[in-house]
Amino acid sequence: MPVAPRPSALLAALLLAGCDAERPASTAPRPAPAASIPAASSPAPGAGAASPALPVDTDRSYAYPAAERVVAIGDVHGDLAATRAALRIAGAIDGEDRWIGGKLVLVQTGDELDRGDGEQAIVDLFDRLAVEARAAGGAVHALNGNHEIMNVQLDFRYVTEGGLKDFEDAPGVDGASSALAPLPSAARARAAAFLPGGPYAKKLAQRDVVVAVGDTVFTHGGVLPSHVRYGVAKLNREVRAWMDGKTPTAPAVITASDGPVWARVYSSEPAPAQGSPACEMLGQVLAAMSAKRMVVGHTVQKNGISSACDGKAWRIDVGMSSYYGGKPAALEIVGDTVRALTNEGDTRDAGDASDAGDAGKASGARGASSTSGASKEKK
Known about the structure:
Elements: H1 7-15, E1 63-64, E2 70-73, H2 80-89, E3 105-108, H3 119-135, E4 139-142, H4 146-152, H5 161-166, H6 188-194, H7 199-204, E5 210-213, E6 216-219, H8 225-230, H9 232-243, H10 252-255, H11 277-288, E7 293-296, E8 306-308, E9 313-315, E10 330-334, E11 337-343, E12 346-351, H12 359-362
Parallel strand pairs: 1-5, 2-3, 3-4, 6-7, 7-9
Antiparallel strand pairs: 2-10, 5-6, 8-9, 10-11, 11-12
């Protein structure tokens, strides 16, 4: 039976959400655990005795088989037009928003919510595309980012006025429930949608925080050594259970300031260079997870998709929503070739690019490098 939050707790969550700074979809079939896991490599030189090699992560229920073509899309923040544009750049949908990707595996790294008015349509779109992709032999993995976590916590600081009204007519939402009476009237429908066990919280409960497709790890902020030790599959299960209303509180690992939806260690500027502490840490995590690279969102890259740590980290939040003013983009992975896709007529081949403070160099841009135009600080 779902564990319903007390009305007083809901009210406190909304009232305490008034501070200025933030606090701390996969919808594809669940994979079977891998039959065998290769041994992890030793830590890179310079990791030091205080950073021993991580144990190999043997519970790989978050891992999916390699695909011929994988495309990842970063933060879309309630902007349905930007979401559609990015999906078309990826070759995932047609002009009527129907799946045309065939066996494409599409990953959206979280933060579909907040800052825009199109959230319900975006969540529903990814859910529908997951069904259509599966029927065509492909897959859609929409992940939970920090803004999905915040909304299930009823932290509505970054919700627009339109976003509050958007869920008044959402299926299954009962904003008139007596349990919501202590809340501000404008917030009741959204709270009913997103409180643990609510209809849209249950939708998010079908999604993971971290997935791996082949040799690439995808998450919103970043997987750190502490998350591997905790258990990536375990944190996915615990977040799902909380969103589904089966446990009363969010797991501490997901709300911590260095949780996998909040971490920025791999996406900072200037980009971490090979041999830096951040890259040494990333190397250990990738070895433990039997992966070659990690793809993250969460932190706007003002010059477009960029890489760090000699191509082991790819940062794909380009601020494409109208709130940030960036341009839609996607990251394509085919074998060991990684490239940024910027629009239907212009792709920037990233190849095996090394670190680059210059995003155009990092992605091997043909001609002038693309600039996202994003300038607002990301929360």
